[in-house]
Design brief:
By secondary structure, the protein is α/β, with parallel strands linked by helices. The strands form three sheets. Strands 5, 8, 9, 10, 11, 12, 13 and 14 form an eight-stranded mixed sheet that branches. Helix 15 runs parallel beside helix 16 and helix 19 packs antiparallel against helix 20. It is globular. Belongs to the class I-like SAM-binding methyltransferase superfamily. RsmB/NOP family.
């Protein structure tokens, strides 16, 4: 471990391990032995956020260093603590305060070249904007998705509470641009029941310490990750809600999908009013026996502890009158679970969301590293070996799920965009799993609850699927306008069950006074980003032109100018550049406010028609 008193030391150490060992940032951050942290602790949120933001800008930082021997000027090759160097460069060029705290040799080397670094950074950003991108084309801004936990509250109540928070937060920011209707609007999702859609800006205050999160009334869960439980519960339409049964969540930690499945099962099982309630012996309390059990399997000890804690937070006790589904966490490897175990005799459905590459998580630090390394053949070969290993494990897990004799529904999902982990696994499972009874075999089924979702699977290719089979698969692409992370969902059903499936569409979105989301936040972000990018590019061009003119003037002055005059000229030039940057910032803020007002007016006009 490199000793350093810099306030960025922890962030630098975390980034070093990520860059050198190519391990996932989350795995490192919460590994008890990583980055010099004491056993059982993890980096604080600020440190983790700083590393994420540095990785987000790593490509453009490297581009800046490649100009005019800047890398050599700051001694990049001789710096042992590359992570700390990158963090300081991010703070200086793209951080909130555009400055570096603390001291040290690395900072002194950077500060010596500060003016040139800033100039090159402005030029690089301007070039990217001119090419149609931002500081980093992989960065996407999604709405803040909030799943209402219907085991504790309902959509209307939670929507009212969050609406008040939105208005109150906007009023206290002091920024006029955040008081418009766009940033205080709230919607329901068009595909997932009980999923609220809030402005991207709400992520700044909607965090795990929020009262609604701590009470278990809401879950911070991305839209696409809600598809797995939704398809398992409602993929067959009305048929799924006829008979209560048990479920298995094969790889359940941290428990978001498990708790979502519990809420959905609770809503479709209902209460059997024909059966009298039984009283417990020794007291007058009513015994509310759950009608369905969800067995939540988790192999990792640390993740199992997280799972147990999450279930206590998100699922009421099974003997509660408010709940008719029980979640039973099991510390085990799903691959070692015996399908013939009598405990699982009533299991009819399995949710399998196994470990994957995570390549669909758009703003993941690991994805930023993939974009940086896309020209490195060695890294690509290593990644392909990892994906191959993952796909082998995923296939084994899927075939094991299909081997349970009484199971007639299996959902297999990943947050990967690679065909090898998706269509290829599905295709192999279909061809390698055989049964004695042809009517008892497995086939893909297009989920009724997501029939209006446009993006489907890929035919041919690695998986070799037919067009009809590919149309049964669900894909999400955060890079192509889906406003959610990349995801893949497949729904396997026994052939004998398909014949009884509901042919009609089940309306999944409850009637609500809250309007349905139809891309309003995305449209607003595009308009503001376009305006801001245009202004920044124009202002950067003016700054570069101004510096070029000053350089020519200094050159014409020649050696006849004294040192004192040169100093005065440099100070005057720097002062003028600072004024230009300030004016550009103020102009951008004015345009944002004006754009927000225009969007609101246009929306009001449209609704009036």
């Amino acid at each position: 471990m490199i000793k350093n008193s810099s306030p960025y030391h922890e962030a630098g150490a975390l980034l070093n391990e990520h860059l050198e060992k190519r391990r996932g940032l989350k795995s490192i951050a919460f590994d008890a032995h990583s980055s010099g942290k004491k056993k059982g602790t993890a980096p604080d949120k600020a440190t983790y956020a700083t590393v994420c933001k540095t990785l987000q800008h790593l490509a453009i930082i490297n581009e800046v260093l490649s100009h005019d021997n800047l890398s050599k000027s700051i001694g990049f090759e001789s710096v042992r603590n590359k992570g700390l160097l990158y963090v300081m460069l991010y703070e200086l060029l793209f951080g909130k305060y555009k400055s570096i705290r603390g001291g040290g040799k690395i900072k002194r080397q950077i500060v010596k070249n500060e003016k040139q670094l800033r100039r090159e950074a402005e030029v690089c950003v301007a070039k990217r904007h001119a090419a149609g991108g931002g500081d980093d084309k992989t960065v996407k801004i999604f709405p803040r998705y909030i799943r209402v936990n219907t085991l504790f509250d309902n959509l209307a109540n939670v929507g009212d509470m969050l609406k008040k928070d939105l208005v109150a937060t906007s009023a206290t920011t002091g920024d006029e641009s955040t008081t418009n209707e766009t940033n205080t609007s709230i919607y329901v999702d068009a595909h997932v029941p009980d999923l609220l859609v809030l402005p991207p800006t709400s992520s700044s205050w909607l965090h795990p310490d929020h009262e609604l999160v701590k009470s278990g009334k809401i879950v911070l869960q991305d839209k696409s990750s809600c598809f797995s439980a939704l398809v398992l519960a409602h993929g067959l339409g009305e048929l799924t809600s006829q008979q209560p049964c048990d479920y298995i969540d094969a790889c359940s930690a941290p428990g978001n999908k498990t708790s979502h499945l519990a809420a959905l099962v609770h809503s479709i099982v209902g209460y059997d009013t024909s059966q009298p309630e039984k009283k417990r012996k020794g007291n007058n309390k009513i015994n509310h026996a759950p009608k369905s059990t969800i067995f939540a399997c988790e192999r990792s000890s640390s993740r199992f502890n997280v799972l147990q804690e999450r279930m206590r937070q998100l699922v009421p006790p099974s003997d509660s009158a408010a709940n008719n589904v029980e979640v039973v966490p099991i510390h085990c490897d799903f691959l070692k679970v015996d399908p013939a175990d009598p405990k699982f005799a009533n299991v009819r459905a399995i949710l399998l969301d196994p470990s994957c590459s995570g390549s669909g998580i758009v703003n993941s630090p690991d994805r930023w590293m993939e974009s940086i390394d896309n020209d490195d053949n060695g890294v690509q070969q290593k990644d392909m070996k990892r994906i191959k290993s993952l796909s082998n494990f995923q296939l084994v897990a899927l075939k094991h799920a299909m081997s349970f004799p009484n199971v007639d529904r299996v959902v297999y999902s990943t947050c990967s965009v690679h065909d090898e982990e998706n269509e290829a696994v599905v295709s192999k499972a279909l061809s390698e799993v055989s049964t004695d009874d042809p009517n008892d075999g497995w086939e893909l089924f297009a989920p009724v609850c997501l029939e209006h979702w446009p993006r489907r699977g890929r035919e041919g290719g690695v998986g070799g699927l037919t067009n009809d089979q590919a149309q049964c698969l669900i894909r999400c692409d955060g890079q192509d306008g889906d406003e959610t992370n990349g995801f893949f969902v497949s729904f396997f059903v026994r052939k004998k069950l398909v014949c009884d499936a509901s042919s009609g569409t089940r309306r999944m979105i409850n009637d609500s006074l809250i309007p349905i989301y139809a891309g309003q936040f995305a449209d607003a972000c595009k308009n503001v980003a376009s305006t801001s990018a245009s202004l920044e590019h124009h202002e950067t061009s003016e700054v570069v032109e101004l510096e070029d003119n000053n350089s020519m003037q200094n050159k014409n002055i020649g050696e006849s100018s004294s040192g004192i005059l040169n100093d005065k000229s440099a100070k005057k030039r720097e002062k003028k550049l600072a004024w230009k940057r300030k004016q550009a910032q103020l102009k951008t803020e004015r345009m944002k406010r004006k754009e927000a007002i225009s969007i609101t007016a246009a929306k009001d006009s449209k609704e009036g028609r």
